[in-house]
Amino acid sequence: KAGVTQTPRYLIKTRGQQVTLSCSPISGHRSVSWYQQTPGQGLQFLFEYFSETQRNKGNFPGRFSGRQFSNSRSEMNVSTLELGDSALYLCASNSVGGNQETQYFGPGTRLLVL
Amino acid sequence: DAKTTQPNSMESNEEEPVHLPCNHSTISGTDYIHWYRQLPSQGPEYVIHGLTSNVNNRMASLAIAEDRKSSTLILHRATLRDAAVYYCILRDVTQGGSEKLVFGKGTKLTVNP
Hints:
Chain A has strands at 5-7, 10-13, 19-24, 31-38, 42-50, 53-57, 64-68, 74-78, 87-94, 104-105, 109-113. Chain A is mainly β and 114 residues long. Chains A and B meet through strand 5 and strand 10 of A and strand 4 and strand 10 of B.
């Protein structure tokens, strides 16, 4: 099975712009979670989607949003980018969630905001 | 969210066992203890998890204290490829069946040749 894929792998944006990141989960997985990793705050949970519905959300401002499509692929969007949004954005998938299942992480998208 | 405490860093020599400790004094009765690791320039990967009993798999062993307030991840023979940040996580099953991983700072393991 192919692993979790994330595109693009690297991205440079400027303050005020918006960005969309994409995540393709492992085939058959219906749950997709997003995390932000920064040197200062570490890995922080953004949100989780299951069957196209957001099931859980972390403590991030409304500028961070996401969605999931019927094929389980997910996108996250950050609007009005700030310098502090520079981070590694990680996507993780598992088959159904809620059952202590293993989360499988992608390699991440590294976003730099100038 | 239940919290875990881990040493910031540990060092080991190749081919020697490594014991990575984790304290979780506020663990609840239904919290599972999970370990993930993150190799340089990669996303985290699952290592092992358990509830009450000690667990073994091909990567590592997990020893859980009888009162469940602490646990230890054991790498039986460290290799250079085991150099990573190791995270001890209590799985938080929120209402609706959703789960999220709450990562702490983790332990950075250095393996010396």
